[in-house]
Amino acid sequence: MNLWNSFYTGLREILSHKFRSVLTMMGIILGVASLLTTFALVEGLAKKSREMLNSLGGVETIRVFKKEPPREQVHIADLSPGITIADAEALREHATLITAVAPVYEQSATLEHGEADYRYTIRGVWPEHVIVQNHKITAGRAICQLDLDEAAKVCVIGSRIVQELWPKDPNVQPVGQTILVNSRPFTVIGVLEHYESEDAKRARKEGRPVPPSRYGSRFDPYSRKNSTFLIPFTTMFFEFKSAGGIGSSGSSSPIPSFSSSKSNSSTKDDPGPNYRLDELAFHITDPQKMAEAQAEAHKILLASHRGIEDFEFENRVEWSEGIEKQNTQIKLVGGIIASIALIVGGLGITNIMLASITERIREIGVRRAVGAKGTHIFVQIIIEGTVLAVIGGLAGLVAAFGLLEIIEQATSGDSQGIVNTQAALASFIFAVVIGVVSGIYPAWQASRIPPIEALRYG
Amino acid sequence: MALIELTDVTKRYTVGAQEIRALDGINLKIDRGEYCAIIGPSGSGKSTLMHLLGCLDTPTTGRVVIDGVDVSRASDGRLAEMRNEKIGFVFQAFNLLPKFTVLDNVELPMIYSGKSAKERRARAIAAVERVGLSERMKNTPLQLSGGQMQRVAIARALVNDPKIIFADEPTGNLDSKTGATILALFRELSEQGRTIVLVTHDNEIAANAPRRIVIRDGRIVQNADNWHSGLRAAPSPQEAHT
User: Fold this and answer.
1) Do A305 and A80 touch, CB atoms closer than 8 A?
2) Are residues A370 and B89, on separate chains, in Cβ contact within 8 Å?
3) Residue B68: pLDDT above 70?
4) Partner-chain residue, chosen from B76, B81, B109, that has the shortest CB–CB distance to A374
5) Whether A258 and A282 share a structural domain
6) Domain interval for residue A302
7) Are A292 and A357 in the same domain?
8) Do the Cβ atoms of A155 and A191 come closer than 8 Å?
9) What residues of B are in contact with residue A451 (Cβ under 8 Å)?
């Protein structure tokens, strides 16, 4: 008895009791649907988290923060110059597991173009900043080493700044135009990509209103990234940082270095050049070697800080691991609950099949009389259960998409599921396995009935 | 060598504490091409005997050899193979699958003998034509008359080209006229050389078969040729119609 025949027989049996079969399958349909929906929703959450992590520089980025030195070093804490450009230079010079170092000077400044003027935080950066912060240039070019060497008055600006400075002209090409930064003319050399979440991008493409960020406009990482205003590091130093008073040049060296920091506290009235960085981050070669890279950076920075441990590292591996761990847990819990639904569906199949065997005992007798072995009957019943589960499983997959759509509508687009083939396949296979297993007991019962008893019945 | 050979066969059932001897020391030989009737009142053990002959059951003691194969201790699977290849059954209640068409019903034994779909279809059509139901191939049994249903059952019994056909009260659910046509069909098959065993409680029906085996209380009480015993002298009313 070949498989196709059994399948056909099973299908016919199911079709001849349509309503009963649908009721039986309902358990499997809902079980598969809830299993896949759970997986898809968790996947959707995970994707959002990953997107954001990437927009913040990905897991390869490590940031250096100031911290209180340990208690035994408090009395000598002043020996350390703090986090300065010297740290960045030392890292660039000596670290082997670091691909890019990004020191940042920050300053609040007034930007002007035509009638529009706004206050923004402007940032003086190295060319590597683009790598470390995962920036993408859509027009013009990035800041290069030559800009730094010449302390050129050029800037690379984010999409939101373009919107603010050219409010009436949405299709403006700002590259080559001049804007005033604290009244000093700067030429725009590059424009950054408009950063947004995948949801927002999709909404914009489909012409729907962009959903408001769930972090609020102030803390939205995308909005902050779009407000980026970058100028060369040296330009920043000379124009805004080299002395207490704006515009006065205080250093003789074009590139400030650690050795000149002695002049830091020479006079009380003029604080002099400020070498302390507002931010220092670096990009490592391989996220697998996070610990080694961090240890190496620690050694280098300890030297440039004269042994004072007044800095610490922050990486996003823990954050990312936290997210993944949480996702796995939600998946597991949701999966278990949905699996219970699926198992209940399987019990429904067992129950119905046991009932239908009593009903079909005569048929079993006839099949036995014309030469069916016990195993034939067993296989037939198993296949009937499997066919039910296969159809139910497929219907469940379809139902999952409906369920996801309902959930998306109900949460106005906030909870979006991502169905991946793996999850769909896993749910489906699980349903089929449940179908096979739930057929075993009825099939075994049916195959054990002696032929003469089955024939005599009814 | 005989097609069927039973030696000292007993079959006992235990119902509660009571032991029932359904068959008690049966010795029987049926040759190839014979047409015989097993006759006896209900409870005589004739159905049990047919179940043993038809490989639906195994004896408690004794030997059952069918077509050279000792099936007295055969496994369930082996018995199923014997039923499939060597035996065709025709039942009183027809025992057709109600949801299947005539052709599908006739194909059923071949599904278990692993024949290809094409061959199954061809042989099923031939068998249905053989019993004169070519017009009704696509009907389901519920759309047929009793006589037609029994013809489908006979076609199903014939389709695997078995050595023996067992018919258990094949006319029991039919009116006498239809019953007569069914019996005529059996006689025809017998004339073509098939071995047929007819089980009945009705002497008149048994009179169709040249040989009669009378069974009572689990023992064979008469095992004779109809022609020699003279029962053939008075033709049965059924025969008058054929």
Assistant:
1) yes
2) yes
3) yes
4) B76
5) yes
6) 81-315
7) no
8) no
9) 56-57
